[in-house]
Amino acid sequence: MARLPERLSRLQHPHLVAGFTMSRGDEIQGVLSGWLTAPEVLRLLRYTCRPLQLRLGIGLAVHAGKMAENPWDLNGPAFFRARSALDDLKRSKQASTEIVTGGAEELDRLLNATLLLLDTILAGWTEAQWEAVHVYESVGTYAAAGDRLGVAPQNVHKRCQAAHWAVVREAEDALRLVASILSP
User: Fold this and answer.
1) pLDDT value, residue 141
2) Where does the pLDDT of residue 44 fall: very low under 50, low under 70, confident under 90, or very high at 90 and above?
3) Please, which pLDDT band fits residue 171 given cuts at 50, 70 and 90?
4) Nearest CA-CA partner of 124 in 155, 81, 101, 95
């Protein structure tokens, strides 16, 4: 398996403005456009970094300055909020995701509860389930995913079903909906 920095460099998404990079030993940082418009990136980051258990801190804010390719060259409210979220996670010793929006505490609580439920589901995924979901999502059918994985389409379906893929996707869509309602 490729080293983590190399795997991170291959993680691509249309909303990824500054790609994920490593620094400070074990920290990873990236920048997405939009107000949580791509919650699937969290899952893709976990997929890319498996088997590592990640603490993901998200800070939301409008960035008015010049965008740099390297996220370590940026600063501002989003980065301070992400650091605050990570500090909370370090105290709780949980490998999960926390978001700080800078808005209402009730909103953060709702978003964090949804993210915790997603993290709880993903934490139970087997390697075969990760692969089935990832390939199925990229090719769009169980038959094509089965061809790529070298298994029967029914096995891809069973793995996605056991991973509660439909529920995960619905929760990601709900987060995207909240983002569309609340985005500045």
Assistant:
1) 97
2) very high
3) very high
4) 95
Which range of residues forms the domain containing residue 100?
4-104
Q: At what angle do helices 105-123 and 40-49 cross, to 10 degrees?
A: 40
Write out the two tokens for 80: 């301070």
Rounded percentage of the chain residues whose pLDDT exceeds 90: 54
User: What pTM does this model have?
Assistant: 0.87
- Asked whether 165 and 16 are in contact (CB, 8 A), the reply is no
* Mean pLDDT, residues 117-125 taken together: 96
* Domain membership flag for residue 87: yes
Residue 89 near residue 96, CB atoms below 8 Å: yes
How long is the chain? 184
Q: Is residue 55 part of a domain?
A: yes
> Would 85 be classed as within a structural domain?
yes
- Which residue reads 């038959």 in tokens? 143
